[in-house]
Amino acid sequence: MTVKITKCFREDLQKLQEISIETFQDTFQDQNTPENMKVYLEKAFHSEQLERELSNHASEVYFIYFNEELAGYLKVNVNDAQSEKMGEEFLEIERIYIKGEYQNHGLGKHLLNKAMEVANDKNKSKIWLGVWEKNRNAIAFYNKMGFIQTGAHSFYMGDEEQTDFIMSKTLA
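-> structure tokens emitted (172 positions)
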């Protein structure tokens, strides 16, 4: 088993768009209406939106490869790029997704470790993320990795308001 993490750049936009749509749909399509999924996917993963994100110096995206195959990705934000005002000491994990066939191989842990490495490099002492309250597997994983629920915020899937738990961790 070989695992490799590489930084994503603007020339990787199409690959990022494809894996973003695929992993988001696989994760959430069974719990949401097709209409709301379509609206969200078209807005969140539109090529212009992803290009803006890749151009933002306060955000970074990383691909993870498992045996040379693109298996998932991570997006982190600091400072103004954070989706909530959490403070200068925080790094946000905005997205962390692994393709279904590559789950349960420890790749999520590799991506979380990468996020913590980036946080340390940027002198951030805390890390946070939002996770849908109904995503029990993800919540259990984050708890196992030392995150605790510290709040909640609204997330809109199309016209449906959903609740994300805010989970955070203080770095050693």
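The chain has five helices and seven strands.
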